[in-house]
């Protein structure tokens, strides 16, 4: 059942858990996320970046999501991740996304507020929820590039939410996009989470981007079957479990699904050199992604 994020975050607050938001870019990854959520019986957010939209097609993604969720009563949202402009947010709203993110974190405070408020005004007319970002999250992934991080200031967050009317806020707490998260194990600043949470209304949904755990078993399997990934590390599972008990209601993951898909496909091609049916090859990637999805849903959303 397609819905915006309001009911989904109500579930998260009621259960004291976090909702997983998984980035997808094709049929197989979307199938894996939705089937995994149904099998675990928990809500999920299916995210698509601008790069994914360019690759798969805006209306194609919406149509696939609607078809795959039409027979389930589980709340699921189709979410634009890191929308870089008012225009892309508006296009996604018109196409049928139930949630959009405008990422103005690279802009000045007032400009970020102005565009976020403009997006929220249009989105709310269509019962679409809006995520915004304040602070800067380090890392490189998809169209997101930042060499440094700026932790979110609680008082700025309070003013930002009040002036924009956004429905959730992505904050910078030490997580980072991509597979090479830092030169050492990423440090999560729980005092920032607590400070922002206290500055906002009780139960206000906060979002953690760049939260893939980068399972080393997947990296090793990729390398075993011909890959060459050298430096990789993610957010510790203990931190993810701790984060879900805070005001963080949404935890974003992209890299982990890419690793799982690549691991599954590489292993299948290596162990089945006679197979040239793309359905069988892609199905191996889908199975690996679903396994990873179910693992994280069991850890964070139950």
Describe the overall structure.
The protein has 302 residues and is an alpha/beta fold. Helix content is 49%, strand content 17%. It contains twelve helices and eleven strands. It has helices at residues 5-15, 27-40, 50-56, 58-69, 86-95, 109-125, 154-164, 190-199, 216-224, 237-243, 255-271, 278-300; strands at residues 19-23, 44-49, 76-83, 99-102, 129-134, 138-141, 144-146, 168-171, 176-177, 206-208, 248-253. The strands form two sheets. Strands 1-2-3-4-5-8-10-11 form an eight-stranded parallel β-barrel, surrounded by nine helices. A three-stranded mixed beta sheet has the order 7-6-9, with no helix packed on it. Helix 5 links the parallel strand 3 (76-83) and strand 4. Helix 2 (27-40) runs parallel beside helix 12. The protein is globular, with a radius of gyration of 18 Å. The relative contact order is 0.15.
**Shape, per Cα inertia axes:** globular
Compute the average pLDDT: 94
Total helical elements: 12
> What is the number of strand segments?
11
């Amino acid at each position: 059942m397609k819905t915006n994020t309001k009911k989904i975050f109500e579930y998260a607050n009621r259960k004291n858990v976090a909702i997983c938001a998984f980035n997808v870019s094709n049929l197989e990854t979307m199938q894996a996320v939705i089937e995994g959520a149904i099998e675990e019986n928990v809500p999920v957010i299916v995210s698509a970046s601008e790069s994914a939209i360019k690759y798969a097609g805006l209306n194609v993604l919406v149509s696939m999501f609607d078809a795959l969720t039409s027979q389930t009563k589980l709340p699921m949202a189709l979410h634009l991740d890191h929308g870089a402009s008012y225009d892309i947010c508006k296009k996604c709203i018109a196409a049928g996304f139930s949630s959009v993110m405008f990422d103005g974190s690279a802009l000045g405070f007032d400009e970020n507020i102005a565009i976020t408020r403009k997006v929220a005004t249009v989105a709310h007319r269509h019962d679409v929820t809006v995520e915004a970002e304040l602070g800067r999250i380090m890392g490189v992934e998809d169209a997101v590039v930042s060499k440094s991080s700026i932790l979110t200031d609680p008082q700025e967050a309070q003013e930002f939410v009040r002036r924009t009317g956004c429905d959730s806020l992505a904050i910078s707490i030490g997580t980072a996009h991509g597979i090479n998260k830092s030169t050492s194990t990423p440090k999560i600043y729980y005092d920032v989470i607590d400070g922002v949470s206290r500055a906002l209304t009780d139960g206000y949904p906060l979002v953690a981007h760049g939260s893939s755990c980068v399972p080393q078993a997947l990296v090793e399997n990729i390398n075993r079957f011909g890959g060459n990934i050298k430096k990789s590390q993610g957010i510790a599972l203990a931190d993810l479990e701790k984060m879900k008990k805070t005001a963080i209601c949404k935890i974003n993951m992209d890299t982990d699904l890419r690793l799982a898909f690549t691991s599954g496909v590489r292993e299948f091609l290596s162990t089945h050199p006679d197979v040239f049916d793309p359905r069988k090859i892609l199905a191996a990637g889908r199975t690996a992604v679903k396994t990873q999805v179910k693992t994280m849903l069991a850890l964070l959303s139950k």
